[in-house]
Amino acid sequence: MNPVKRYTAAGGIVVDEDHVLVLQRPSRDEVRLPKGHIEPGETVQEAAVRETAEESGYRDLSVRADLGSQVVTFHHQGQYVIRRERYFLMSLLCQSREPSASGESQFESEWLTWEEALGALTFEAEQEWVRRARRLVVMTGAINDGP
């Protein structure tokens, strides 16, 4: 029997007007959303902001809403992985789409429209996060009501 690995990851859907921040990962030919592991002593929201900032280079982020959670399962390096994902809707506090710092070298940040992001993201689970964020923005104007 293969070992089972369980963990929680947290990330952000960063929206600026009608564009969504995605991360190109050329070494794996993937387009992803920023997310990562929660460090000891960190809240899920703190982890989401930290991971989004580290991976993308955007440090001036405002959390707008909790998008909930979903469970994703997959096989990786001989292990069956059960990952609980938590995402937060975020916006930029600054007026520029230029990152304030360097992101992780494995990623290249790119701004895509909602439709482009849905078409480009490699994994269905991440497409679902973008759909959730878009529904919330359309229904509530969550990004347009200031920091």
Task: Describe the protein in words.
The N and C termini lie far apart (49 Å). β5 and β6 form a beta hairpin. This protein has a single domain (4-95, 103-140), classed as Alpha-Beta Complex (Nucleoside Triphosphate Pyrophosphohydrolase). It has 147 residues and is an alpha+beta fold. It is 25% helix and 42% strand.
Task: Walk me through the topology.
Elements: E1 4-16, E2 19-25, E3 30-32, E4 35-37, H1 44-56, E5 61-76, E6 79-92, E7 108-113, H2 114-120, H3 124-140
Parallel strand pairs: 1-6
Antiparallel strand pairs: 1-2, 1-4, 2-3, 2-7, 5-6
State the gist of this model.
The protein is of the alpha+beta class and about 150 residues long. It contains 3 helices and 7 strands. Strands 1, 2, 3, 4, 5, 6 and 7 form a 7-stranded mixed sheet that branches.
| Mean pLDDT reading | 91
Q: Got a strand count? A: 7
Structural class: alpha+beta
Alpha-carbon distance between the termini?
A: 49 Å
Rg, alpha carbons: 15 Å
Number of helices: 3
CATH class: Alpha Beta
**CATH fold name:** Nucleoside Triphosphate Pyrophosphohydrolase
- Extract low-pLDDT stretches: none
Question: Architecture in CATH?
Answer: Alpha-Beta Complex
CATH superfamily: Nucleoside Triphosphate Pyrophosphohydrolase
User: What form results from the Cα inertia axes?
Assistant: globular
Q: How many individual domains?
A: 1
Biggest sheet descriptor:
7 strands, mixed
Instruction: Name the helicity range.
Output: 25-40%
Strand percentage lies at: 35-45%
* Element pattern in H and E: EEEEHEEEHH
